[in-house]
């Protein structure tokens, strides 16, 4: 009681002081309204409480009398209310719901009958039933009357094996193989060729199905078909119309020859080859102007069925103001393909080939001899590569020595054009004979250790006018001149190519078989009637 009275008195007095003094000293002297709850809850005198509570300003204006005890009390009230409101915020966690019980037994069977699932996942429909007396087992399951399948010829595969893999009996596979080999060379059939095979009804289950039909594209210009005719197989050749008008691409060089030619439709490797060929005649970066016209001709084949085979570059030309700056034609001469100018002069720049694939172990120049142990001139280059590795002719030439020669052991010397000759020593075996002509890259012998040698290696020398020179110093230029009959043929081919219109190879190919096809009734109806 006492306490309660004091509490009420205290509050009243605070309010009084507030009104009168409004000083900071007064606030400090009085305890805060936090003492209030103690007095409220311990009190029993209801009438007094009611009076007190009705007079009490629960929500003082916090905008005025800032810092006064009443203001602080209001602040505490506000904070408490805010805290209460925040504590009442709803939780946004998931709401637990009812989960369906897993289906089992009869219900599971019923549900499963209604779903669609792959067989691999155990799909079945309906309720399983045990076989009743009404179920009679089949004596034999029915077979498909014919099977159509596609077999693919693999790399290094044989046609016969492919057919046998597809299920054709070995004698029939052999028969088909013979028929096909009579029509085309089997080696010409490209790996990856798809073969349509139709197998017929077999007389008994322990026998292979007979081959009813077989069809595939044997060559770019030939379809082959094998049909059953009674007990025999019959081959049908179905030629495909093929047009081999070369593809000519002409255009202005512009800022970049490469990009312009690519934009005009030339394949990347053809443009690279073109630049290489033109580069042998002139400098691509300096001598070609942006107003020049490039002229690229590629070998090109297209079949009536729509396939296209783009071949290699066969002509490279450059024109300036309608005048030819370069005309290079690919030509086979003496078993070799080379690029020739319009005049029939061929040119191929190139270094000498490597005489063997091994690495260079010793260069041309002064060195301490490994056996004789004094400083002397090494008159050639040494190559490693192991015993028996092949040795190649560095360029075309004629064998002028093939046999033993002192410290060189087994030695071959080739005479080339332009006063050059090359020598190959220490061979284990010689593969050419004296007086023979050899081509660049041809095998002339094998690495060995004959003669004055510490181990298997090739001692390679190059001579000019009979004296050794550093093999690294020579860059070869081969020149060939066409003449007589060959030159006339060459010029004829050049003229023929130059008559080809750019884009002539891209026109629609008139198909002989398409014309033969009868006109369909529906198309005839749509045509206007002739009067
Ligand atoms: Zn040597």
Summarize the structure.
The protein has 531 residues and is of the alpha+beta class. It contains 13 helices and 25 strands. The structure holds zinc ion.
What is the topological layout?
Elements: H1 2-20, H2 24-29, H3 36-42, H4 46-55, H5 69-87, H6 105-112, E1 147-152, H7 159-166, H8 170-183, E2 194-199, E3 211-219, E4 222-229, E5 232-239, E6 242-243, E7 247-252, H9 257-263, H10 268-279, E8 293-303, E9 308-320, E10 323-333, E11 336-341, E12 345-351, E13 360-362, E14 365-368, E15 375-378, E16 381-383, E17 390-392, E18 397-404, E19 410-415, E20 420-430, E21 437-438, E22 443-447, E23 458-464, E24 467-469, E25 475-481, H11 484-499, H12 512-516, H13 521-526
Antiparallel strand pairs: 1-2, 2-3, 3-4, 4-5, 6-8, 7-8, 8-9, 9-10, 10-11, 12-25, 13-16, 14-15, 16-23, 17-22, 18-19, 18-21, 19-20, 20-22, 20-23, 23-24
Helix pairs in contact: 1-3, 7-8
Notes on the structure:
It is a single chain. The protein has helices spanning 2-20, 24-29, 36-42, 46-55, 69-87, 105-112, 159-166, 170-183, 257-263, 268-279, 484-499, 512-516, 521-526; strands spanning 147-152, 194-199, 211-219, 222-229, 232-239, 242-243, 247-252, 293-303, 308-320, 323-333, 336-341, 345-351, 360-362, 365-368, 375-378, 381-383, 390-392, 397-404, 410-415, 420-430, 437-438, 443-447, 458-464, 467-469, 475-481. The protein is an alpha+beta fold. It folds into four domains: 2-81, no CATH class; 147-239, Nuclear Transport Factor 2, Chain: A, CATH 3.10.450.350; 247-348, Nuclear Transport Factor 2, Chain: A (Roll), CATH 3.10.450; 360-473, Distorted Sandwich (Glucose Permease (Domain IIA)). The strands form five sheets. Strands 13, 16, 17, 18, 19, 20, 21, 22, 23 and 24 form a ten-stranded antiparallel beta sheet that branches. Strands 6, 7, 8, 9, 10 and 11 form a six-stranded antiparallel beta sheet that branches. Strand 9 (308-320) and strand 10 form a beta hairpin. Helix 1 packs across helix 3 and helix 7 (159-166) runs antiparallel to helix 8. It is extended and about 145 Å long. It starts with a helix and ends in a 5-residue tail after the last helix. The model is unreliable at 1-37 (pLDDT under 50). Residues 362, 378, 380, 382, 459 line the site of zinc ion.
């Amino acid at each position: 009681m006492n306490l309660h009275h004091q509490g009420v008195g205290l509050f009243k007095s605070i309010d009084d002081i507030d009104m009168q003094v409004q000083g900071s000293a007064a606030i400090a002297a009085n305890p805060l309204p936090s003492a209030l709850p103690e007095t409220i809850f311990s009190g029993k005198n209801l009438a007094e409480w009611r009076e007190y509570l009705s007079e009490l300003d629960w929500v003082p204006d916090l905008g005025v009398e800032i810092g006064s005890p009443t203001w602080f009390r209001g602040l505490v009230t506000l904070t408490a209310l805010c805290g209460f409101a925040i504590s009442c915020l709803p939780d946004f966690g998931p709401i637990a719901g009812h989960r369906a019980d897993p289906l089992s037994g009869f219900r599971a069977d019923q549900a499963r009958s209604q779903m669609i699932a792959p067989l691999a996942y155990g799909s079945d429909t309906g309720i399983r039933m045990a076989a009743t007396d009404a179920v009679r087992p089949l004596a034999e399951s029915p077979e498909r009357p014919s099977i159509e399948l596609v077999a693919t010829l693999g790399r290094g595969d044989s046609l016969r094996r492919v057919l046998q893999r597809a299920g054709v009996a070995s004698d029939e596979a052999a028969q088909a193989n013979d028929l096909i080999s009579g029509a085309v060379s089997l080696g010409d059939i490209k790996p990856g060729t798809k073969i349509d095979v139709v197998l017929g009804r077999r007389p008994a289950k322990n026998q292979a199905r007979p081959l009813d039909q077989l069809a595939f594209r044997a060559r770019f210009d030939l379809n082959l078909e094998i049909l059953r005719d009674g007990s025999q197989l019959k081959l049908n050749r179905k030629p495909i119309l093929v047009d081999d008008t070369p593809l000519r691409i002409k255009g202005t060089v512009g800022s970049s020859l490469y990009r312009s030619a690519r934009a005009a439709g030339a394949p990347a490797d053809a443009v690279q080859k073109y630049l290489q060929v033109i580069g042998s005649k002139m400098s691509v970066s300096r001598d070609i102007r942006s107003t020049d016209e490039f002229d690229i001709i590629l070998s090109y084949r297209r079949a009536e069925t729509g396939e296209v085979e783009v071949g290699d570059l066969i002509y490279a030309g450059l024109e300036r103001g309608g005048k030819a700056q370069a005309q290079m034609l690919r030509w086979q001469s003496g078993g070799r393909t080379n690029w020739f100018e319009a005049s029939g002069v061929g040119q191929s720049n190139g270094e000498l080939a490597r005489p063997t694939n091994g690495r260079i172990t010793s260069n041309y120049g002064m060195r301490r001899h490994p056996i004789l142990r004094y400083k002397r001139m090494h008159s050639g280059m040494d190559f490693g590569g192991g015993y028996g590795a092949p040795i190649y002719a560095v360029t075309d030439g004629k064998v002028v020595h093939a046999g033993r020669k002192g410290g060189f052991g087994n030695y071959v010397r080739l005479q080339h054009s332009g006063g050059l000759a090359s020598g190959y020593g220490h061979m284990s075996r010689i593969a050419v004979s004296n007086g023979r002509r050899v081509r660049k890259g041809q095998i002339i012998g094998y690495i060995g250790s004959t003669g004055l040698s510490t181990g298997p290696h090739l001692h390679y020398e190059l001579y000019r006018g009979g004296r050794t020179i550093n093999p690294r110093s020579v860059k070869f230029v081969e020149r060939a001149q066409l003449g007589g009959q060959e030159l006339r043929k060459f010029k004829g081919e050049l003229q023929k190519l130059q008559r080809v219109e750019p884009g002539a190879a891209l026109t629609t190919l008139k198909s002989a078989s398409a014309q033969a096809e009868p006109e369909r009734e529906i198309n005839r109806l749509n045509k206007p009637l002739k009067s």
